[in-house]
Amino acid sequence: MSAQPAPLPQDDPLETLKATFGFEGFRPGQQEIVEALLAGEDVMAVMPTGAGKSLCFQVPALMRPGFAVVVSPLIALMQNQVALLQSFGAPAGMIHSGRERSENVADWKAATEGRIKLLYMSPERLATPRMQAALKKLDVSYFVIDEAHCISQWGHDFRPEYLALGQLKELRPGTPVAAFTATADEDTRADMKERLFGGQVRVFISGFDRPNLSLAIEEKSKPDDRIAELLEDRRGSQGIIYCGSRKNTENLAEKLRDKGHNAVAYHAGLPDEERAARLDRFLSEPDLVVTATIAFGMGIDKPDIRYVIHRDMPSSPEAYYQEIGRAGRDGKPAEAILLYGPSDLMFRRRMIDDGGAPEEVKRHEKRKLDILSAYCEALTCRRNLLLSYFGEVRTEPCGACDVCLDPPRTEDATADARLFLEAAIETGEVYGQAHLIDVLRGSESEKVIKARHDDLVVFARGQGRPARSWRSLVGQLFAKGFIEMRGEYRSIALTDEGRTFLNGGGSLELRRSEKRETTRALKRQQ
Ligand code: ADP
Ligand code: ZN
């Protein structure tokens, strides 16, 4: 490429942001990452797609001496980013197999001569001994690994070529490595951290919040009728209603049409041309409601979807987050409403049990389901609970979820909360919630007897509270940050706050588990 050396970089990242990219300020979470990179730290950053990962490494790359090596798995991604950087006048180049050799050589030369600040390349290219030998001698400011979850077998996009990136720290011990990903899966994150950084790295998580999206849960009963009713208040605007089966999408669409709504079903069982026709209608009819399975999603990027309703429970917090994320992309108020009942939870569990996945994967999926049900039963700010699952910690209530807007009735749960925490400690903080509840409720299950947990002081001391209510309590302790769920078995362990509570004399108010109908309250607020 032919770009001249950039004008001398500013030493203030905000100035660089304004001068080069023309943006007014950093988004939440960006500045911390920029500063860490400027300070020469290793960084692992988790941000959802669209939150603005690229600027986090582009701004400091322009400011530090030398050039940053950016590893990206897809040629198309590289091309987009490099073209965009060049359009801002930021000197960037790339080396990959989709270009002429002479183009690659020109960009490489520009890098070695200090004429570019960002050099994008594929992981295969970086892994070659020749490239590694060359990079050893050059002025590399840091390495950036985009889509870093590709290094993990746990991730969905495992790329064997990424494994070689685990050696970057040996290749250039003093050179920082910055890994970026949008994956929220905890096992994948742990794996990334281990392979790329030997477990030692500062982790930044941000950008998961969608503040214009209000969140609500309703106890599920006669869902099709209820949805028709909900749509009365939302006539004229567009929404998606996710259903757990093709049959449910068809039945619901029919019911809605009967009530005079412009509704159509969408699922993978329809012929291709019919699907295309319905998608076309969705893009052109501003009041069309689509009742859909998860087949309706990929590539749906319509900015003005005003609500996403879940008739049936989704499979995981990730799926839920992704599905509700299709609403309100224009930044204007939008709603996410989930109808939730214990039978859905059971249905989802059965689907996992009956599926052909290995045991380990099934446990993994069930754990995600437990978190989603804790979200549904939350007694504190739902948004904060969801964000905490993705690793983003908030303490201020959001003010835009049903729990914040219509605070549930509470009870003094101090004694039972302590009892639960004691049960976790007495059993070594290695058991999941189901077993701990069994112990507290005095169940003589095989597992309880085998572990001799019927001999514990806490055994059967929680019989006064039904299992469902215990689960709700556990969900709330999780939401409050008193406990965390660790590792493969979601073992319940106390956090520092949990220990402080247990050792101190504080009291704890929690929400009663009871029927509520909150969406109306939410609607009234708008
Ligand atoms: P990601 O890589 O996280 O998916 P991008 O880096 O492509 O996201 O950023 C998404 C969009 O947000 C881009 O259009 C980008 O220009 C824009 N963006 C990122 N940071 C800011 C900011 N601080 N101010 C304004 N726009 C931003
Ligand atoms: Zn809230």
TrEMBL record:
Catalysed reaction per UniProt?
A: Couples ATP hydrolysis with the unwinding of duplex DNA by translocating in the 3'-5' direction
Biological source species: Parvularcula maris
Name of the gene encoding the protein in the UniProt record: recQ
Q: Where is the Helicase C-terminal domain?
A: 222-369
Q: Give one GO molecular function term.
A: ATP binding
Q: Give the Rhodanese domain ranges.
A: 222-274
Record-level GO cellular component terms: bacterial nucleoid; cytoplasm; replisome
Tell me the ranges covered by the Helicase ATP-binding domain, including all copies: 34-202
Write down the Gene3D superfamilies for this protein, in alphabetical order: HRDC domain, P-loop containing nucleotide triphosphate hydrolases, Winged helix-like DNA-binding domain superfamily/Winged helix DNA-binding domain
User: What protein family does this chain belong to?
Assistant: Belongs to the helicase family. RecQ subfamily.
The family database entries (SUPFAM superfamilies) matched by this protein are listed as: HRDC-like, P-loop containing nucleoside triphosphate hydrolases, Winged helix' DNA-binding domain
Name of the protein described by the UniProt record: DNA helicase RecQ
Question: Which cofactor is recorded for it?
Answer: Mg(2+); Zn(2+)
State the Gene Ontology BP annotations.
DNA recombination; DNA repair; DNA replication; SOS response
Q: Which residues form the signal peptide?
A: none
Alphabetized, the UniProt keywords read: ATP-binding, DNA damage, DNA recombination, DNA repair, DNA-binding, Helicase, Hydrolase, Isomerase, Metal-binding, Nucleotide-binding, Zinc
Q: What is its EC number?
A: 5.6.2.4
Q: Which NCBIfam families match?
A: recQ, recQ_fam
Origin: domain of life: Bacteria
